[in-house]
Amino acid sequence: MRLMRPVIALMVVGMMSGCASLMGEKTQKLSINSTPAKAEISITDETGSVVFEGQTPTSTDLEKSDGSYFGGKTYVVTLKKTGYAPHSVTLNSKVNGWYVAGNLLNIVGWLVIDPMSGAMYTLDPTEVSVNYTINGAKNEEGTLSIVLLEQVPSIYKDKLKAIQ
Fold first, then answer.
1. CB 3.0 to 4.6 Å from 34: which of 39, 104, 122, 137, for a disulfide?
2. In which order are the strands placed within the sheet that holds 58-63?
3. Residue 20 and residue 109: Cα distance in Å, rounded?
């Protein structure tokens, strides 16, 4: 009977925890780089609040959950550099493997602990890296570069001519 108490205690502790909460973190480090360096960075969350400002290269820790039940975070990372078109990347929270595999037999972890802690999420992408081209599609060596139409600044779009 004395052996049963520790076994029961371990089972209760196991049922009161979530695997992602035990193995994961509530925050995730995001690395941000640009070529050339020293681009201005602004990160806003799903409410429009600015959560980080700085210059490349850098990294920052971002919350993966908004603290609500199944409340994964979403961020928009915007990089701006004088003479270059601005670039934005959306970070979405996705369910990670610890949450799925670790809670197969743990309903409390699956439905209560991990959804509240935020450890069940991973932000994707895990890194932001921007390689700028100069407005007007010429790079620093003066040779022609091909860019996507959405990368062309709006002030130049009315001057474009179709090549046939």
1. 39
2. 58-63, 27-35, 127-131
3. 8
Mean pLDDT, consecutive 10-residue stretches, the chain (164 aa), reads 58 46 71 93 96 97 81 92 90 71 50 61 89 58 64 76 76
Stated pTM of the model: 0.62
Strands of 87-95's sheet in order across: 50-55, 40-45, 74-80, 87-95, 121-124
Rounded CA separation 132/148 (Å) = 12
The CA radius of gyration of the chain, in Å to the nearest whole number, is 23
Determine the Cα–Cα distance for residues 119 and 127; give it in Å rounded to an integer.
Answer: 18
Which distant-in-sequence residues (6+ apart) come within 8 Å of 41 by Cβ? 32, 52, 53, 54, 55, 56, 58, 77, 78, 79
Domain boundaries, the chain: 26-128
Which class is 26-128 in CATH? mainly beta
Question: Looking at the chain, how many residues does it have?
Answer: 164
